[in-house]
Every structure is written in C-alpha cells, then in structure tokens.
Write a structure and sequence with these properties.
Layout lengths: L11 E5 L2 H13 L4 E6 L8 E6 L3 E8 L8 E6 L2 H13 L3 E8 L8 E6 L5 E6 L5
Parallel strand pairs: 1-4, 5-8
Antiparallel strand pairs: 2-3, 3-4, 6-7, 7-8
Keywords: Dioxygenase, Oxidoreductase
InterPro entries: Glyas_Bleomycin-R_OHBP_Dase (IPR029068), Glyas_Fos-R_dOase_dom (IPR004360), VOC_core (IPR037523)
GO molecular function, one term: dioxygenase activity
Length: 136
C-alpha cells in the first residue's frame, strides 16, 4: 500500500481579513481532529497579528495572519487517521459556521481509499479533512 501520510511542507500561513473571526472558527474545528491553538502573536514590529495551530508536543504548522485577503481557489486539506475523524471534522466545521461543499465520501477519482469531506470556512477557504486508509 502507498504511504500517503506526510509532506515536506513545514508550515503554512493563511491571510485572513479578520483574525478574531477566523480564530473563533478554527479553534473548535481543528480541535475536533487533534490540532490545538499553540501561539498567539500580537501585531508588532515583525508584522501583523498571527496565531499558530499544530500538535502541542511538536510545533505550530498552520498559521492565520491578520489583515490579509483570501486568494481565489484556495484549498487546504488536513490529513486524519480515520474516516470517523473526517466525519467529525465536517460536523464541527458546519457547527462553527462553515458552508457545506461536499459531504464526506469516498473519492475514487483520487485513489480507492480516499475519503474526504469539504466545507467553505467563513472567509471562503475550501477546507477538507481526508483519510487515505481503507474503512475499518
């Protein structure tokens, strides 16, 4: 079986027009799949306010940056270990104010075990949780 579990991306910054609104959305949604808010950096000489999310025993790897413009066709997928986590993420995102895009399902156009669910966050970013493992 092909290992689809990782990448070489160390961290990713996403510009949002309202960091407080974004934090209110992302905190519960990411917590639903084990990703925690780790750092809040106020605006200063380094630049705009930022907040970092990641695995607390490692580092933040997903950052929201205040005062930006969301790009067109922006898509961000979070890898999870089980299909149940995809379902949990999708429900948590909808409860936090996301707009439904595509319900969790197998997407054989990518590979036979690709199970993903899609939403649009309140700023229009297309978010996905994806599991690359077969059903339990």
């Amino acid at each position: 079986m092909t290992d689809r579990s990782g990448s070489r991306i160390d961290h990713l910054n996403i510009a949002v027009p309202d960091i407080r609104a974004a934090m209110a959305f992302y905190r519960p949604v990411l917590a639903s799949i084990g990703i925690a808010q780790m750092l809040v950096v106020p605006a200063g000489d380094h630049g705009p306010a930022m907040t970092g999310y990641g695995w607390p025993d490692r580092k933040p790897y997903f950052w929201l940056v205040d005062g930006g413009t969301v790009g067109t066709n922006m898509h961000l997928a979070f890898t999870v270990d089980t299909r149940a986590e995809v379902d949990t993420f999708h429900r948590a995102a909808l409860a936090a104010g996301a707009t439904a895009r595509e319900a969790p399902a197998v997407r054989t156009e990518y590979h036979p075990d690709y199970y993903g669910g899609f939403v649009d966050d309140p700023h229009g970013i297309n978010l996905e949780a994806v599991c690359h493992h077969p059903a339990a």
